[in-house]
Amino acid sequence: MTKAQIQIFFERLREQRPHPQTELNYGSPFQLLIAVLLSAQATDVSVNKATTQLFIDAPDAQHMYDLGVEKLKNYIKTIGLYNAKAENVIKTCKILLERFHGEVPQTREELESLPGVGRKTANVVLNTAFGQATMAVDTHIFRVGNRTGLAKGKDVLEVEQRLLKVIPKEFIHDAHHWLILHGRYCCTARKPKCGECVVSDVCNWKERFAYGAEIPHLQQPQLES
Ligand code: SF4
Question: Which residues bind [4Fe-4S] cluster (predicted)?
Fold first, then answer.
């Protein structure tokens, strides 16, 4: 995708969603961290259902730690992989209390030292809770980046680095959410809605016309009179 196309791509996504936000519910960086930890291989809707009561009863690291693994499982047992997630959440709370005064650290290294926290989770927390210009590449962003030609890469790290390089500064903070939401609701894995897509004219995916993207009109040559 050219520089000009990338500019248009993000201007359109911004126009469509001026204030994009994560669909996970949270009230503090701690709650965001826990929600993201729980969301691995689970839908945001299922996580929100479980955390509604959990965050009332255990809003911070100390209260969550006091719950212990078994009680925590009762809150999150509707979420996939809840056994391992409960263990990781309680271990994470212990480390937050022992090393970070119960607060969520603000560096990638410290975040990635927490159980169950990988690069993607760290990027989400740094971006969404602390306003840092990071790019958490999930399955949606990986697909949109490669398919549209915005940022091609063979793995998530390559796509992440490419996106950080090509996205203009003015869009970088919100780009993560725009791309996820675009991938989740429009540029879906199966049957993408190219006919309704606000960036179909700057997208480079060859198959977009088969999915309803408008075919650009060719300029008719001027006839001499
Ligand atoms: S035109 Fe289709 S493939 Fe391209 S970004 Fe839009 S939905 Fe995705």
Answer: 187, 194, 197, 203
What atom of ligand 1 comes closest to residue 197's alpha carbon? 6
Domains present along the chain, CATH in parentheses:
3-19+135-211 (1.10.1670.10), 29-128 (1.10.340.30)
Q: Model confidence over 105-125: pLDDT tens digits?
A: 999 999 999 999 999 999 999
pLDDT above 60 (res 78): yes
Q: What is the pLDDT of residue 218?
A: 61
Catalytic residue (choose from 60, 66, 94, 120): 120
Ligand 1 pocket check for 203: Cβ under 6 Å: yes
Residue (of 96, 108, 88, 120) closest to 30 by Cα position: 96
22 Rama class: left (phi>0) / alpha (psi -120 to 50) / beta: beta
